[in-house]
Amino acid sequence: MKVFNCPQCAATLEFERIEKPWVRCHYCNSLVVVPAELRPPAPPKPEELKTSYGGGESSPKKVLFAVVALLLVAGGVGLLVATRDRPSNGNGRGAANVADTRRLLHTPTPTPRPDGFEVAYTFGGEGTGPGLFKGGMALALDAEGRVHVSDETRRVQRFDDSGRFLNTWNIPPATKWYARARGGPSKIIVNERGEVYAVLAGVILKLAGETGEVLGAAHGSDYIHDAALSPGHGLLVVSEKGDDDELVLIGGDGRAARRTHRFVSSHLDKRLEVRALRVAAGSGGEAYALYCIGGVAGEHWYDDEDIAVFKLSREGKLLARFGGQGREPGQYGPPSAIAADPGGRVYVSEAFDKVHVFEPDGRYLRTLKTPHAVEAMAFDTRGDLYVAGSHRVSKLALDR
């Protein structure tokens, strides 16, 4: 573990691995230069390419050489076939050395890319004007593809499906359900009627999607930290009951249909910081819970197994556990968010610029390197991924 302090806010930064000479502070979001003794070593100079067969060790990319000599009638004219890279792992990163001069035809269906997606658009920046964001972000989409983004100013900004700014409204700083909201919501959700649920100040506030008019709230004696919409089943809610974690399913009538006490901590035999627990809803009513310590400010003590994904049945029974801290495929650093796409695949984001993708049963699929840090994720009805972080929002058209 590599540990040093942020020079801006003095927070303690901990990293299992550091791949660049700078990192981003989890707490104040500023760029921090890594101390020289903790930086990754400079990559070794590439060795001179050997052309003799069987010479040298194999590299991650296998290189094939072919020389075909064809003697013609007058003189000896040799024909040299250009060398070309051939990808060794099927990820499509090999590139031809000879340019293809044929005209590329546009097609609405994207071809597979090495990164697994195409950036459809990115918008945003730091500030408080239209299309700009300040502090922690939350993200949601409605059925028409409109993008809703909130930040620490409690503004909710709306954009059309091409990223064009539509309008903005503010979540009230105080209501009859809470005396004062500190910062913006930790999660926003848009239901099938276009109404917005905002999780803040221990309650879930219900607001009109176009205007922000307050329509009601889900609240109680428990402090609510997160929620996810489970289509056809209700609203999954992460609440803090005393010092314990509890998962509550709120039905269409607004009442608690099921409560699962200590839905994560009981499987670890320890107490967790409930404010860091996040939940995503699967396509069949199952729940995926994750200890997202990378998305919550403060110091956290945890074991590698604590940040695994816990898959729970509709009845709250543990079905599977996958992921966790590490450097192997399917493992990750401190996570910041969890989401599920319309097909049931599960996405786990790290605090920086990586999103790890799993099948519903927990099998690891791939890792996406996003164009910026990820604090929140959401999907449209097509299954394209939207990520928010570093004051920006990007739409990633995923390979099908």
What distinguishing features does this structure have?
globular; four-stranded antiparallel beta sheet; 400 residues; Neuraminidase; mainly beta; 1 helix
In round numbers, the mean pLDDT is 81
What is the radius of gyration computed over CA atoms, rounded to a whole number of angstroms? 25 Å
What profile does the largest beta sheet have?
Answer: 4 strands, antiparallel
Fraction in beta strands: 35-45%
**First and last CA, distance:** 37 Å
Number of domains: 2
CATH homologous superfamily caption of the largest domain:
TolB, C-terminal domain
Structural class: mainly beta
* Range of helix content: under 10%
Number of strands: 32
Identify the CATH class of the largest domain: Mainly Beta
Describe the global form: globular
Strand neighbour order, sheet with most strands: 9-32-31-30
CATH topology of the largest domain: the name is Neuraminidase
The low-confidence parts are 45-111
What is the CATH architecture annotation of the largest domain? 6 Propeller
**How many distinct helices?**
1
